[in-house]
Every structure is written in C-alpha cells, then in structure tokens.
Design brief:
mainly alpha; 2 domains
C-alpha cells in the first residue's frame, strides 16, 4: 500500500515534464519532417532554383531566335541571312565551297 502511495506522489511531479517533453518532441519532429517543414522547404527551394535556371536558358534561346527573326524582316533583311537560309533550304553551295561527305556506315 505504501508503494502505491509513493508511486502516485512521485508521478504527479513526473507527468507534467513528461508531457511537456513529448509535446516539444512532437513539434520538433514536424518542424523538420512536416508538410511545411525544413525538408519540404529545401525541396521547394531546389525546384525554384531549377525553374530559374530553365527560365534563363529559355530567355537566352528566345533572344537568339528574336535576333534571327529580326534579321529576316522585310525592312531590315540581311543579305547574308537570306543567303544562308536559301542555301540551307535549297541544298545549294558556292563554286569555291568544300564539301565533305561522311560515310554512313562508319558513323554507326
């Protein structure tokens, strides 16, 4: 009987700190592993960095394409650009051009 009373008396002093420690552990776990925790934040940061890098690449490609298109506009038609596109599309070359043919069997 005395052991049970001693246990009850000591448990009153232990339950409060134990519940506080469990609550802190619960919140600490969710700060790291939760839906809005540190790991989720890190993954989102990586995705944002990858998206920014893709945006920079697409902007550079767009500038290149815009520059080439502006050279082909009727008001500012560049003769070199016109000649390059015509030779490419019609498969023509100059008399002084050197043509190197590849062997398709060696390429494989």
């Amino acid at each position: 009987m005395y052991l049970l009373q001693e246990f009850r008396a000591r448990s009153r002093h232990v339950i409060g700190p134990l519940l506080g420690t469990l609550a802190i552990g619960y919140f600490a776990f969710h700060v790291v592993h939760g839906d809005r925790g540190l790991i989720a934040w890190w993954k989102i940061k990586q995705r944002v960095d990858a998206a920014k890098q893709a945006m920079h690449i697409s902007r550079a490609e767009r500038k290149t394409i815009e520059r080439r298109v502006s050279l082909m506009e009727p008001g500012s038609l560049d003769p070199d650009m016109l000649e390059e596109r015509a030779r490419l599309m019609l498969n023509y070359g100059h008399v002084d051009d050197i043509v190197i043919l590849e062997d398709r069997k060696r390429r494989k």
